[in-house]
Amino acid sequence: MTPLKTITTRMKITTANTNGIRAAQKKGFFEWLQKANPDVVCIQETKAQVHQLKPEIFMPEGYHCFYHDAEKKGYSGTAIYSKIKPQSVKTGIGWDEFDNEGRWLEADLGNLTVVSLYLPSGTSGDIRQDFKYQSMERLEQEFERLKNSGKPFVICGDWNIVHKEIDIKNWKGNQKNSGCLPEERAWLTKLFDEIDLLDAFRAVNQEPHNYTWWSNRGQAYANNVGWRIDYHITSQDLKDKIISAEIYKDEKFSDHAPLTLEYQL
Question: Which CATH number does 10-264 carry?
Answer without folding.
Answer: 3.60.10.10
